């Protein structure tokens, strides 16, 4: 397939995720005995040392089992890099990023249970901006994009399983090049503005990690006439007694003030710095 060379292979993807502290964390993980009645000091010392060494600014470890015999929680380090950084504690709001994909998937499966949609529903009418996108095969000798019309339908299941043809432009060179040619969206653009660009392959024919579940969230909003935040509040968070999981536009003032800063590794040495802002990874209307 022509698009295949544009996608990150599993081997390369694994290598790309390697971090300076990976071996240390693996050792820390293996240091935990099987028994629940244990002394955690040696395990915790490894995380404390990792903070001192700059592997990360802070971490929160939590473990709990259904019986209640295991109930462990501890914070390490600070909320950001820097001498005056505030300590990280168990109540510090943290950036969930793509972990919201799980929550969105749960919400979408609830819609299926309630008969509002099925996995095999063609979602083109709900998300016409995505449905109108062609497939990008690369660039010709004159650096013009090679595009073709999509022939297969985009099903709800494709959005939920990363098989709709969507991808994150920053992770795929040909998409990043296409976006550079077209011009980047404004900071904190809406989800539809930021994520409207060509597919990489026909829906249901391949797999690529990307924006599919983001688009599934837009389908949910159309079906329920609610924001994704409001739907999750009513159908997931409230039943669980949770009130401190918010998409960025819905953060309380307290959460904005207290939230931890995202770390960013730069240079060949992978030095850790504070990410100045999240404008390039937020959506103005969703995250």
TrEMBL record:
Q: Which terms are listed as keywords in the entry?
A: Hydrolase
Q: Matching InterPro entries, A to Z?
A: Beta-lactam-related, Beta-lactam/transpept-like, Diverse_Enzym_Activities
Does Hydrolase count among this protein's keywords?
Answer: yes
Q: Which residues form the Beta-lactamase-related domain?
A: 43-249
According to the lineage, what is the superkingdom? Eukaryota
Q: Which Gene3D superfamilies match?
A: DD-peptidase/beta-lactamase superfamily
Q: Where is the composition biased (Polar residues)?
A: 1-12
Q: Where is this region: Disordered?
A: 1-22
Q: Does the keyword Ubl conjugation apply?
A: no
Gene Ontology molecular-function annotations: hydrolase activity
Q: Which family does it belong to?
A: Belongs to the class-A beta-lactamase family.
Q: What is this protein called?
A: Beta-lactamase family protein
What species does this protein belong to?
Aureobasidium pullulans (Black yeast)
**Taxonomic lineage:** Eukaryota, Fungi, Dikarya, Ascomycota, Pezizomycotina
């Amino acid at each position: 397939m022509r698009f295949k060379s544009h996608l990150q292979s599993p081997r390369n993807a694994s290598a790309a995720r390697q971090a300076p502290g990976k071996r240390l964390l693996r050792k820390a993980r293996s240091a935990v005995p099987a028994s629940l009645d244990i002394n955690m000091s040696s395990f915790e010392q490894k995380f404390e040392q990792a903070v001192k060494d700059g592997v990360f600014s802070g971490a929160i470890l939590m473990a709990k089992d259904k019986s209640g015999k295991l109930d462990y929680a501890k914070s390490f380090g600070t909320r950001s890099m820097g001498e005056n950084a505030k300590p990280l504690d168990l109540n510090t709001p943290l950036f969930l990023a793509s972990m919201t994909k799980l929550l969105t998937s749960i919400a979408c499966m609830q819609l299926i249970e309630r008969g509002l949609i099925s996995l095999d529903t063609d979602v083109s009418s709900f998300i016409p901006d995505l449905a109108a996108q062609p497939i990008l095969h690369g660039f010709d000798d004159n650096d013009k994009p090679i595009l073709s019309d999509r022939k297969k339908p985009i099903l709800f299941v494709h959005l939920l399983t990363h098989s709709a043809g969507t991808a994150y432009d920053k992770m795929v060179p040909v998409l990043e090049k296409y976006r550079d040619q077209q011009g980047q969206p404004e900071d904190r653009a809406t989800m539809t503005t930021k994520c409207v660009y060509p597919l990489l392959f026909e829906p249901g024919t391949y797999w690529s990690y990307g924006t599919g579940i983001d688009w599934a969230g837009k389908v949910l909003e159309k079906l329920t006439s609610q924001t994704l935040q409001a739907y999750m509040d009513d159908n997931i968070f409230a039943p669980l007694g949770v009130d401190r999981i918010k998409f960025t536009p819905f953060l309380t003032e307290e959460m904005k003030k207290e939230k931890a800063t995202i770390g960013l590794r730069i240079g060949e040495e992978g030095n850790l710095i504070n990410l100045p802002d999240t404008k390039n990874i937020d959506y103005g209307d969703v995250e």
